[in-house]
Design a protein that fits this description.
The complex is a heterodimer of chains A (102) and B (613). Chain A is of the alpha+beta class. Chain A is built from three helices and seven strands. The longest helix of chain A has 12 residues, at 81-92. Chain A starts with a strand and ends with a strand. Chain B is built from 13 helices and 23 strands. In chain B, the strands form six sheets. Chain B has a seven-stranded mixed sheet with strand order 14-13-20-15-16-17-19, sandwiched between helices. Chain B has a five-stranded mixed sheet with strand order 1-2-3-7-4. Chain B starts with a strand and ends with a helix. Classes of the chains: A alpha+beta (102), B alpha/beta (613).
Chain lengths: 102, 613
């Protein structure tokens, strides 16, 4: 669900433009093909960018992740189920490294 | 729109430059006046960043990160990065710090090493030796190689204000922030994101596992061709789309099999720490956690006498064995033993270091595994720790305490030589991040989080990273080498290892005398003993004997003082007729004979050949 806040601090239904801005950036289904002599290229837009996202955990520490999936980034920042997945996998794998400060 | 060249910053900031800083990274400032890079808000210089406004510090940090990469990778083609520093999504507890990526990928460009393979545009241009998508190109390809957008609001009200904001310094002293928070090191984030755009990313479709250009151009990308699944014993480009989807969550079995990374990883990643008691009682090997500060622990490690460190029991630490205040007994030249609790691990180790200890072993105060020790959160403090430290379990601590009661205890703290290095697999490959379930964009396009010490291209940047991108601190440069950023210091498109003049551009590899040095860097191209600078014939005819036509005189093809050989001189004769030719040969041989370069018999033999010609 997406909501917006008006100038009086009241929740309201977002406008179509706001909905579009909030929507996770999906990768284009068709990419623009480039050519240079015999070479072939594919144009990439920002949906292919890697994003670095941070949020604070329950103890106030920063938790970082880097992803090129905009919906994953949004979920991580919002601490939704996908975020819990990120955190939950750590104790499941024997290869993960955890360090304690004191 | 302003553009800045990263290399120019080196001079401006007096950052040391190697003789061959070989990639020119151009930052294209995409911010409007007064915003982002152009923000005039006054700021105090910090951590070597001399900027006096927020905007200056931001662009300086970009320059600095770009200059680190520019000094590390080689390309004759400028790498253009369109950058801006504006508002990105943010709340009081979360934020998008920034994003970056390549603007195009290319296949089958000139000189490319692997055909039918997608390359990040900057690699394709490097290998081609020209800009694949230059400014003003007619195809409408983006004129920049990478785009980067970062969040200008970090640290402001409502946007992670508690963090203290970005740290714009060129060092890693980001913590603590003036407000007590943990500032985020912009240069480290930039180095990470730039690496993705330069080549540290796969473009396999995360939904269906197909290669990006499928079905029209169903080629693998250069990154996926180095991803190896040891369960299937296959590289990703050898797999079906369905196999790739399964492989990407094969935790602990998906790895990077590039030759450069595999060669350098043992110098970067640690062995599993091990604590050994070498005296009786208690002799044996024990599990140990490492530390994210202090000297690395590797094989054979540090050997020494272990002594219990004693400090005052006070408010900082209620036990005389907790090491929370100055050590009172003699630990000089010894390995200090203390107990976990009350104060941070780094504080204990620093106290031991100040007292002269050469290493520290900290015993846990509760049952559990031997977990690694993190730093204090104060970077300058942690960086001042130079001795190694390890953490053992409560049970191992009891063994040590009993041994200390019995007498002298000798120990070794180091790496287990029989272990698989942390972040690697048993075949020497470096593990990739492959959690289950899959995490789009994080999985496979990062090294695994089990890497120790931490490396730049894990999905989460940690506070103890340096700004180095190469061994022995890091593996990012090695990975970029594996995908096509081959070393080419003179940017002549010939890899340094194969280049007969690695420091002088010579794409043709011309090498007149066939020795180890090409002409471009050989002071004596023809190896005639006369330096090229003084040589009238730097590329002399160096055949062994003088021949004229089909007649071999068997006389030595002597070198004259000006670097000309007899064959050079004879070959340069312009004669009116045969008699004139014989006469000119005679003049040359007479000169050589007078100089003692040939004998009388040789002189005669040459003249005889000339007469027969």
């Amino acid at each position: 669900m997406q909501v917006s806040v008006d100038e009086n601090g009241q929740l309201r239904q977002p406008t179509a433009a706001e909905m579009q801005a909030l929507a996770p950036k999906a990768r284009p289904s068709v990419m623009r093909v480039l050519t240079s002599g015999k070479a072939v290229g594919l144009a990439l837009d920002e949906s292919f960018d890697h994003m670095y996202v941070v949020r604070t955990d329950d103890e106030g520490n920063f938790v970082f992740t880097c992803t090129d999936d905009h919906s994953e980034a949004a979920a991580f920042a919002a601490k939704t189920a996908a975020v819990d997945t990120v955190l939950r996998i750590k104790p499941q794998t024997q290869r993960v490294r955890i360090a304690e400060r004191e | 729109m302003k553009t800045f060249k990263a290399l120019a910053l080196f001079a401006a900031l007096l950052v040391p430059v190697t003789a061959f800083a070989n990639a020119n990274i151009v930052i294209v400032n995409n911010d409007p006046p007064g915003i982002g890079f152009n923000d005039p808000t006054p700021a105090a210089p910090v951590g070597g960043n001399p900027g006096t406004t927020l905007g200056q510090q931001r662009i300086n940090a970009f320059y600095y990160a770009a200059s680190i990469w520019g000094a590390t990778i080689d390309s004759a083609v400028p790498i253009r990065v369109r950058a801006n520093f504006g508002p990105l999504s943010c709340t009081a507890t979360s934020a998008t710090l920034g994003s970056a990526g390549a603007r195009s990928i290319w296949a089958n460009t000139d000189n490319i090493r692997e055909i039918d393979t997608w390359y990040h545009v900057a690699i394709a241009s490097k290998q081609a030796g020209y800009d694949i998508a230059p400014v003003g190109n007619p195809d409408g390809a983006d004129e920049v190689d990478l785009a980067a957008s970062f969040n200008a609001n970090i640290g402001t009200p409502g946007c992670l204000q508690s963090s203290g904001g970005w740290y714009y310094g060129f060092d890693t002293n980001q913590t603590p922030a003036p407000n007590g928070g943990s500032r985020i090191n912009l240069v480290a984030v930039l180095l990470h994101e730039f690496a993705h755009g330069l080549g540290f990313s796969t473009f396999v479709n995360r939904t269906n596992g197909q290669n990006l250009g499928f079905p029209t151009f169903p080629w693998p990308d250069v990154y996926q061709k180095r991803i190896f699944d040891r369960t299937l014993n296959m590289y990703w480009d050898q797999m079906s789309a369905a196999q790739r989807l399964a492989s990407r969550v094969n935790t602990g079995n998906l790895s990077w099999a590039g030759a450069t990374v595999m060669a350098e990883a043992p110098g970067v990643l640690d062995l599993v720490p091990q604590f050994s008691i070498t005296s009786a009682p208690g002799t044996g090997n024990y599990a140990m956690g490492g530390a994210e500060f202090g000297a690395r622990l590797d094989f054979p490690g540090l050997a020494g006498e272990l002594v219990a460190a004693i400090d005052a029991a006070n408010a900082a630490g209620p036990l005389t064995t907790d090491g929370c205040t100055a050590i009172l007994n003699d630990v000089q030249g010894k390995i200090a033993f203390m107990n976990r609790g009350t104060c941070g691990f780094a504080i204990k180790v620093m106290n031991a270091q100040v007292a002269g200890a050469i290493g520290v072993v900290i015993a846990d105060n509760a049952a559990g595994p031997a977990i690694d020790m993190a730093g204090s959160g104060n970077r300058p403090f942690d960086l001042a720790i130079t001795i190694p430290a390890g953490r053992v379990t409560l049970a191992t601590g009891d063994v040590v305490r009993n041994a200390l009661l019995a007498g002298t205890v000798n120990v070794t703290i180091g790496g287990d030589p029989n272990s698989v290095r942390r972040g690697m697999d048993s075949a020497g490959r470096v593990l990739l991040y492959a959690p289950n379930p899959f995490i789009g964009g994080s999985s496979t396009s990062h090294f695994d989080v089990s890497s120790f010490r931490n490396v730049l291209m894990e999905p989460n940047i940690t506070g103890n990273l340096t700004h180095s991108v190469k061994a022995p601190e890091d593996l990012t440069l090695a990975q970029l080498r594996d995908v096509g950023w081959y070393p080419d210091a003179d940017v002549d498109l010939v890899e340094d290892g194969d280049d007969n003049c690695p420091a002088a551009a010579n794409a043709d590899q011309a090498n007149y005398d066939g020795d180890a040095q090409g002409d471009a860097c050989d002071a004596d191209d023809d190896n005639d003993g006369v330096a090229d600078a003084n040589d009238a014939y730097p590329h002399s005819n160096m055949q062994a004997t003088v021949t004229i036509g089909t007649c071999n005189s068997n006389a030595s093809n002597a070198v004259m003082p000006n670097g000309a050989t007899l064959m050079d001189r004879i070959g340069a004769i312009v004669a009116k007729n045969h008699g004139d030719f014989v006469s000119q040969v005679s003049a040359i041989t007479n000169e050589a004979k007078k100089l003692g370069l040939i004998s009388g018999a040789e002189h005669g033999a040459i003249q005889s050949c000339a007469a027969k010609n």
